[in-house]
Amino acid sequence: MSFEQKVKRVKEILESLNNNELSLNEGMKLYKEGIDAINQAQKMLEEAKIQYEEIKDSSQDTKSSNEGM
Q: What pTM was estimated for this model as a whole?
């Protein structure tokens, strides 16, 4: 599931949790699913940040090498 899909699912879960007719058991299942999706999305963001930093550092290294010529 993509990051965007996870965020969309969390929004759907939040809407469902606001439903007063939801049973406690169903609510707890949805809550757990939502927390799991949020944690997975957070992990994806952290991994993207690391990749961004690596690309940025690599780009700066290449730029520095080219300036020395």
A: 0.74
